[in-house]
Design goal:
- The chain has three helices and seven strands, in the order E-H-H-E-E-E-E-H-E-E.
- The longest helix has 30 residues.
- Helices cover 39% and strands 26% of the residues.
- The two termini are 24 Å apart.
- The protein folds into two domains: 72 residues, Orthogonal Bundle (Helix Hairpins); 78 residues, Transcription elongation factor, GreA/GreB, C-terminal domain (Chitinase A, domain 3, Roll).
Length: 155
């Protein structure tokens, strides 16, 4: 099974890939060419910086291509109806130690943003919650030790 993602997430990755390949690649190629014209390449820091940035861009392109080739696009309509925590589920959990409650939306790695309370399926909490149902207790390894959460609600 590939890495699950929504159609929207897949489209965003495709757009990012197209930008890196068709726009950024040309910009960096031009920057390398201009820096090369400044003379001796051994002592040309602008040239080396442009080449490094060009290499990083190519690495990002390969990474995005790999993500897209391994992607399993899932139908968002069927995600939450299973009664289990799935991609795009919004989950209310209770820390059994402190009794504090948290609400997170489970998303792909590329959509994760802790400030928006979106956690990825590969994060420790997201991984523990994925596939679980209301009422179940999950255990998460954290820097402070194991934390137990009870799943209160899934939307």
């Amino acid at each position: 099974m590939g890495h699950q993602m929504t159609k929207d997430s897949y489209k965003k990755l495709e757009e990012r890939l197209n930008y890196l390949k068709n726009v950024r690649r040309k910009e960096l190629s031009k920057a390398v060419g201009e820096a090369r014209e400044h003379g001796d390449l051994r002592e040309n820091s602008a040239y080396h910086a442009a080449k490094d940035e060009q290499g990083m861009n190519e690495m990002k392109i390969r990474d995005l291509e790999a993500q897209l080739s391994n992607a399993e696009v899932v139908d968002e309509k069927n995600l939450v109806q299973s009664g289990e925590v799935r991609l795009n589920s919004t989950v209310k959990i209770r820390d059994l130690g402190s009794e504090r409650e948290f609400i997170y939306t489970i998303v792909t790695e590329s959509e994760a943003d802790i400030f928006e309370k979106k956690i990825s399926t590969s994060s420790p909490v997201g991984e523990a919650l994925f596939g679980q149902k209301v009422g179940e207790i999950v255990e998460v390894d954290a820097p402070v030790g194991k934390i137990k959460y009870k799943i209160v609600e899934i939307k």
